[in-house]
Amino acid sequence: MKETVSELLQSALAALQSEGTLPADQTFTPQVGNTKDKAHGDYACNIALVASKAAGCPPRQLAEALVARLPESKAVSKVEIAGPGFINFFMSTASAFEIVETILSEADRFGRNDNGKGEKVQVEFVSANPTGPLHVGHGRGAAIGDSLCRLLEANGYAVTREFYYNDAGAQINNLALSVQARVKGLTPEDESWPADGYRGDYIVDVAKSYLGNETVTADDREVTGKGDPEDLDAIREFAVAYLRREQDLDLKAFGVHFDVYFLESSLYEDGKVEATVERLQDNGYTYEQDGAMWLRTTEFGDDKDRVMRKKDGGYTYFLPDVAYHLDKWQRGFTTVINEQGADHHSTITRVRAGLQALKAGIPEGWPDYVLHQMVMVTRSGQEVKISKRAGSYVTVRDLIDEVGRDATRFFLAARRVDSQLTFDIDLARSQTNENPVYYIQYAHARICSVLRKLADEGIHRDRHECIGDLSILTLDEEKDLANQLAKYPELVANACAQREPHHVAHYLRELAGQFHTYYNAHKVLIEDTALRDARLSLYLAVRQVIENGLDLLGVSAPEVM
Where in the chain is the domain with CATH 3.30.1360.70? Predict the structure, then answer.
């Protein structure tokens, strides 16, 4: 419907240009938006205010001229001019319900588009160190990252999901030492326990499996425990593989998959880190000071230069990040999105600076970042901090076990990424209208229940077919529902462009609210079969859009609740 209004305005603008009221050598693009108050119509446009200077007349006068030249359209019942020159469109009831037929015809394709034209996009998300179970922060990253991938695919992009394993460095060494201590029968209470060792029960599980000569498979490798307490390298390799497998199982339980698992260690094994260092040196952006090698990141907007190789010869964490992102660029990804925790904010400038210093043709401001804020988990109004398995934090598995996958995914993706999130376990478990995911899923289940009741009477209605004469729907609530449904394609496009999946959750909550209100006020299983079937068509369209929207969030649409 919005497209119809835009086309009508374009025609009126063209008429004024041909008459000389507006300059013919300028382009005028009307921005049509939804009205906040239905008293002002369904759609509004401010083009008269935008173009009045070019026309050399007051905005309201230009608005009157535009309205006078609008082509006739059965889709529009009335046009009004408001305030200084806003043009408000009131759509006809019949036109409002055209969207229902479109939805039922397109089914699960409704809302999808080809804006991306198949462009390759890589999204890196989660990327947890293989040192323990995934914590709730990783869960938020997984929910947001996967929803973002689904949105990109719905907008016609070819998406690659990538997980980057930091399987090198001090944390991995601490993991190996912790498992070795358990293998030798030590506990965190012993004086000889590693100072920075990991204490969760999962370390016990790794140690038992290693001593039991178990074989674990982690994506690209199969590792068998040697059982030797003194072979730290063997313990390290086994522990990393074991925890990679555990994290993968957690992600599968969360409904998240990855196309590529990339190991930090491979950057060293393949010589890509050293090649990056040499390229930075050759380009003249490094220098030696105090026994360390520095990168002149200040030449690319950083507030100070950064150490890239420490006195002991080891590289700082951002140097392999630069090598890794060069690899991404060389793999042909012109658009790369990194979904990470807010603690990565400080790395953005220096990674981008390092990439510019490589002189590899990488655009400034590449890659893109989506940074989420922390999550606090509460139960009975009190913060929950401890997981027995992890030892010091709440895990994704804890939440899935407590409230289920659907509620976990929805709650973690339903807030703006840059806002802190309180995950209320009690709310997520409740079957009330206050629980947003329950409220939305219940709307879908309610519609399915109505269809089952009809089927019991021998009346079967196809979910992809408009079965009623929509012209007999005259209620304001019905038109409002149709208008809400019509917003969905634009929502999908905007949520993708803004990289903000939470807009989908908010839209679904509003749609479910409108449906529940309508359902409670107006019966559908009535003797008037024509009206019944018209309302059923509206029901089916609502169900389809809820199903499509929940899928973008990785949440199921149950038929029974």
Answer: 2-91
